[in-house]
Predict the structure of Dihydrofolate reductase family protein.
Amino acid sequence: MGKVVLYSSVSVDGFIADEDDQPGPLFDWLTSGDVPLDESGFLKVSQASYDHTRPYWDQIGATIVGRHVFDLTDGWDGEPPGGVDHVVVVTHRPKPEGWNPEAPFHFVDGVEAAMTLAQELAGDRIVEVAAGDVGGQVLAAGLVDEVRMDVAPVVLGSGKRYFGSAEGQHLLEDPVAVVQGERVLHLRYPVRR
């Protein structure tokens, strides 16, 4: 079974989007360099960001997201982001009407069921959990092995929190990676058990 990683770009004050679900400059680092991060040619980062991010992306076998993120992105038009093999959507609603049954998206009710399915689909590869409400629920359930943050140099002031509505204290170990890129600081923290 692969590692479970809670991940997102985040503002210095801990938000992954503003009150209107807009990320603002949180993803500027993805277009601030000259090294192509993927085949699109649109994402270009610094060499330091590439060296940190590309190997991580290549290890992801499944990503867990909430229905809200799925709806905001229009389900990425049925193509998982970043070349991920599978997306598991946590939702209490059925898949959208007319949804392509061949698209590698799986709709489940509850974070535990999502984790079980994502780990099965990912095998020994990483299960990535999108930060936000679902990410906070997965953290609170004790299912996260590592927290990864791409900290953008911006203060949003309010918005959608990285850890969603997670309550209580959750201890992390000292960072195992601190990488400075262009317009971003990449951080990795193991979760204390």
Q: What stands out?
A: The two ends are 17 Å apart (CA to CA). Residues 4-190 form a domain with the Dihydrofolate Reductase, subunit A fold (CATH 3.40.430.10).
